[in-house]
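Suppose a colleague, Dr. K., hands you the sequence of a protein chain of 298 amino acids and asks what its three-dimensional shape might be. Before reaching for any lab equipment, you can write down a predicted structure in token form. Begin with the sequence itself:
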Amino acid sequence: MENVHILTQRVSGRGDFLPFSAEHTQTNESAATHDLVTELQTSLVIEDVLAIYAKFAKQLLNFSGLQFQSTLGTAQTSDSNTNTNPYIFDLSIGREHLGQLIYFSQYPISSAIENKLRALHTALVYPLRNAMMYSRVLKLATKDALTGLNNRSQFNDILSQKLENCRRYQRPFSLMLLDLDNFKQVNDNYGHKVGDDVLKEFSKVLCSSIRGTDSVFRFGGDEFSLIIEDPEFTTNKVIAERIMCLVRTSSLMAKYKVTTSIGFTLANSQDCETEIFARADKGLYKAKASGRNCAKAY
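The predicted structure, expressed as tokens, is then:
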């Protein structure tokens, strides 16, 4: 055993030491990094990229949670426990700052482990940036540019999914259509800048009137929709009254005499997209015919 150099490494969270040869370790780390790079290229979803990375990083550090914070918001691994100590690393490519990668661990990070993590970060940053770019493109494709609400394309996808769940798992829901009364006069008399302000104000009203399980959409112009995770006329009436009340008490909406008309219907297991939309639209027509600024079921 002469001329054999034995090194030791502390295993985070255990306190014992494992012997290994420097050459063998270097080879293993190089192979692991190569495997990491390969796996990271299999997804363009930020959460998936984090999950793949976490699997490799846990071989170095016993952490309880992993988060990535950026201008897109906060993403984290599905099993993250963020109640332990945070260790924050800035991720950049050249002068482009991607965000912060945060490890949560009850164990301290040694300088040796920190250096190894930074080495892994070099494999992570490019796939992560690609995932961020994909997320931005996807958002542009599914979000309304003015209000930030889901757009018509996203509505079609979610409605189709909800109807499939209704048929297969007996999970009924409600569909509500809304538009703004007197909105055309606002655009004609005060200009599109004021019209845009009214649309954004109404979007805030809708978002504050629903629960986290419900969804809000803007089709374009002054046409909006809600998918409500409750198959009861009573719930729809409560939400509709809440919306109309907030519109009445909004100083901006009141200034330009803008109100809202609402139509709603309940889904059933026999519905297709065209049928349920037509019923909600008939409810909206009834509200318009009844003098506007009201909600009608169909």
